[in-house]
Amino acid sequence: MPFDPTRRAAVAAAVLSPFAISSLLHARSGAKDLKVGVIGCGGRGTGAALDSLAANPDVRVTALADAFKDRLEACRSNLEREAGERATVAPSACFDGFDAYKKLLATDVDIVVLSTPPGFRPIHFAAAVDAGKNIFMEKPCAVDAAGIRLIMEKAKIADEKKLCVVAGTQRRSQGSYIAAMERLHRGDLGRLVAARCYWNQGGLWHNEPRADRTDVENQVRNWLYHAWLSGDHIVEQHVHQLDVMNWGFQRHPSLARGVGGRQARTDPTKFGHIFDHFAIEYVYPPKAGDEAFGEAFALSMCRQQDGTAPRVEETFTGTDGVALLRPGFAEFTGGKRWKYDGPNTNPYVDEHKRLQEAIRSGTHVNEAVQVAESTLTAIMGRMAAYTGQDVTWEQALNSEERLMPDAIELGEKPVAPVAIPGQTPLK
Fold first, then answer.
1. Beta-carbon contacts of residue 298 (< 8 Å; ≥ 6 apart)
2. Residue 18 pLDDT class (50, 70, 90 cuts)
3. How many structural domains compose the chain?
4. Helix (H) or strand (E) holding 126
5. Peptide bond connecting 117 to the previous residue in cis, omega within 30 degrees of 0
6. pLDDT in tens, 336-391
7. Are residues 255 and 270 in the same domain?
């Protein structure tokens, strides 16, 4: 059966039960608490905070920041209800407004969770690195090339400071994917020649605009449907599959060509200006030593339309077989048949556990460049679909296109014109 996109909510609910046990373990351990601050207190930020608590009993949430006070207070209430004293945040450590992240970074948190709409991610990542914080950042990490370049620049500084950075690409923390990639990379499929990846599902939530709010506030609260905030759904959601493509091929693509559009979500009041379907062909250059065999290709498809068939998976085709991957499932057919039968622990918790264990042990981990390359892979696919042109990696990386304004104020209306196909030429 295809992976159910609603699984995230079920997983989040399933991890709440360990808190009572964790509190007892914490009382015995005597270890120094790791203090977590959350920037972006919506559903994902609240879920990430609970995941960080479930990962280790010696963790507390001590600071919260969000642009909107009502979202902050809802998060604060939910965390305290689910995790008790481990997530009881003092009012003096709760900050709201578009500059709230600066105030949180001035506190003594050890780890900062970045879970705002993706358009803000580069700004917050850069500030967190400058503040010397270890970082868990949700995917994707940017919405445009300018943001990607900032992430890559600050990733180097994070290395110099020995800061740990883990990204919310859960498949890299899941047993089935890790085991499959070990076999794929050692050559169990032979030479990789092609791949396919899908995230096809129905529609998602939307928040109706309100007359008592400014245009920007309405857009930020309905962020999924504005490319300056989400990057479009190929970037915001499908980055998971594209990250798996790059992981499997062990490199990023050199070119993207594709199509996309709006068929179902055409009401701009509800659905802003993003597309509801994309189909992209990615070209992967030959691996070192395989130049004689030429390029490999990956087909990427993502769709958010009600009443359509769901499909969320990745496949790799090699000269000796085919791999089918889904969360919790992996199977190789062909010369070296194999099916994953190992444990399936919660990847949403395990990614936080990896970060916390790295900090505790002094082991340096930094996934910023990795997730930046996967995010740029999604961005170049979006650019190809928007413009109807082939887009190279170099064009995408060096693009002067900026979706995210340099400064956000509630009176502005920063709707990005690039979301109109062909309006912004490639440079």
1. 194, 195, 196, 197, 245, 249, 253, 281, 282, 284
2. very low
3. 2
4. helix 121-130
5. no
6. 999 999 999 999 999 999 999 999 999 999 999 999 999 999 999 999 999 999 99
7. yes
